[in-house]
Structures are given as C-alpha cells and as structure tokens.
Amino acid sequence: MKHPVTRMGLLLAVLALTVIVAAGCARGGGSSGSENYTISFSHVVTPNTPKGMGAEKFKELVEQNSDGRMTVEVYPNSELYGDEDELQALTGNSVQMIAPASSKLSELARQLLVLDLPFLFEDVNEVQEFTSRDSRSGQAIYENEDLSSNNMQVMGLWGNGFYEFTSNAAIRTPADMQGQRIRITPSDVIRSYIEKWGAETTPMAFAEVFTALQQGVVDGQYNPYSNIESQQFYTVQNYLTVSNHGYLVYPLVINKEFFESLPEDLQQVVTEAADEASTYVGEIAEDDNQESRRVMEESGQIEFIELSAEERQTFKDEVVPSVWNEFSADIGQDVIDELLARQEQQASQ
C-alpha cells in the first residue's frame, strides 16, 4: 500500500533540495559553471593611487566579464592586512590577491631583486619593455618556480613610478645622506645602495611610515610622488629630492591553489583582467604622479631639489656597477652582463 505524500513531507523535500542547490553555488573550487567565487584583494595604499585605481579596474573587469560568477572585494590602505602580514594571508588563502612591492617577494624569489637595482631605468618606456610578459626578464618573474612553490602566481606587473627621496635635511650629494636614518622596504639590494651612500637603513611597514617621520624615528624615506602625496609624507618632511634612483614595481600576485581551482573560463577572465589592468596602471601612473607633484608644489609645505645630470651621476657612480655585481649570484650573471651592456650602449648614444 502506498503512503500518501503529506504536506509536511513535501515541505521537507523542498527544503532538502534548496540546501543541495545552495551548496552547489558556494564559493570554492570546481568546474561547475553555476558556482560563484570571491577574490579578496588586499593592498596597502589609498584608492586614488595608481595601484589603488588598478585594483578597482581589475575588480570592474572581472565582475563584468564573469557574468556575475565572480566578485572582487578590494581592501585598500592596509585596511585588512599590512606589509608585515599580507604575504602570509595570501599563501594561507585568507586573501586571494595582493600587489606588494617587488622587494617584499625577493626573500622568496631572489631573482626579483633585479627590479630593485639602482638606476636600472631612465624612462617609463624602458620599464614597460622590461616587465612585459614576453620579455626575458618578464618570463623569469611570471614563471618563477620559487614563487610557485610558495603557492603564489604572478598575474601582472604594475609600474607605479620613480623613487624620490624626502628628508628633513637637504640631499644633493651622497655626502648629505651620511648618518641619516632612511626607511626602506625589506630589500637587500636597496639596503646595500642606501648604506653605500652613507645612510642608516630602517625596514618598516608602509602604514607606519607617516608616524615614524612625524615623530623623528626616521629622517627620510623614498617613494613615487603619488605615494608621498597620498600618504601626506610631504607635510612632515622639509625636502624632496628628485633622484629617480629606482622604480617601484608591484607584482600582482594570486593564491596559486585558488587560481587553479577556478574553471578554465574563469581563469581566462582573471588572466585577461590582470593584463588589461596592468596596461591601465602603466597608462595612468605617469599622469597621476605628475598631478601629485603639482599638489605638493602648490602646497608650499616641502621644498623640491632638482638634481642636475652631474649630481645624479655622482649617486649612480657609487652604486653602479658595484651593487649590481654584488647580487649577480642571485639575479644571474648573464642578466647583469646584459643590463650593463645595455647601459653602456645608452651612454654611447
């Protein structure tokens, strides 16, 4: 004898079906086109900087091209994680994407120290050529085995701008840096060349720099104009020296296991969004930095020091090629030789 289906039994069956469908739409890996995924993107600068705008562009592209299957949550200005813990957060999948300064990855992948070499670039066009996915140097970064073994995959390289010094004492020559305490990112290359100029180096998280400058814990720091202006460093420093001694590059890095858990079509969405966002950052960075410079100049709160070609060459002669050769075992002697040959060719033109 068949038992009639009661109203309560029917309700329970519907609820069970609802739970099964909801589980199929949960965040996570797999290949079903019905699943939804979230990328938490943490970074340490303000939204109105090139990196901040790049993160928003990446979000826009991923969400637009994934037909609602992907969401990107952007956490700027160390809101979620700071310099000191964002790498651990990424590898542990607490966040799925970060864009740190390349120097922060160099302890894991020593080849990335090449991006910290002093006076490596003379103009923005060189940066774009050097960091393209198809270039020899770009391939060494995008396909880096050390990063891969640490559950990281580089999806893009975002150029943010040339480094300029700010300090409470005027800097026109290396001798002017004697005894000054300069905040640095944790890079052996940067530490080496700053100390060759006679300064003391203090590694420090980006979020702590303003207070450290304000309280005199450090005497100076270096950053592109956009970071100096957006973080208000210029309001607690007396001088800005236009040194262009280095270039800040942010590798856009995703949690490798998370990326590989995505269906192939969504992997393609993320890859294309990263490429397009990288191009976008390259296009806006120079204009944004010049606008930040204008804001600081018009404020009258900091004095600009423009180094002559001869003065800048004095800084360069003290660290090139000595610092470059110092790290040839990490970067690769063949890479260093190629870079030095390029510099000699440029000098002869």
Structure description:
With 349 residues, the chain is α/β, with parallel strands linked by helices. It has one domain: D-Maltodextrin-Binding Protein, domain 2 (3-Layer(aba) Sandwich), CATH 3.40.190.170. The chain has 15 helices and eleven strands. It has a five-stranded mixed sheet. Helix 2 links the parallel strand 1 and strand 2. Helix 2 packs antiparallel against helix 11. It is globular. The chain starts with 6 loop residues before the first helix and ends with a helix. The N terminus is likely disordered.
In brief, what are we looking at here?
This protein is α/β, with parallel strands linked by helices and 349 residues long.
Radius of gyration: 24 Å
Task: Give the name of the CATH architecture.
Answer: 3-Layer(aba) Sandwich
Instruction: Enumerate the spans where pLDDT stays under 50 for 5 or more consecutive residues.
Output: 1-32
What general outline do the C-alpha atoms trace?
globular
> CATH homologous superfamily - what is it?
Bacterial extracellular solute-binding protein, family 7
Distance between the termini: 98 Å
Helix content: 40-55%
The number of distinct structural domains comes to 1
Number of strands: 11
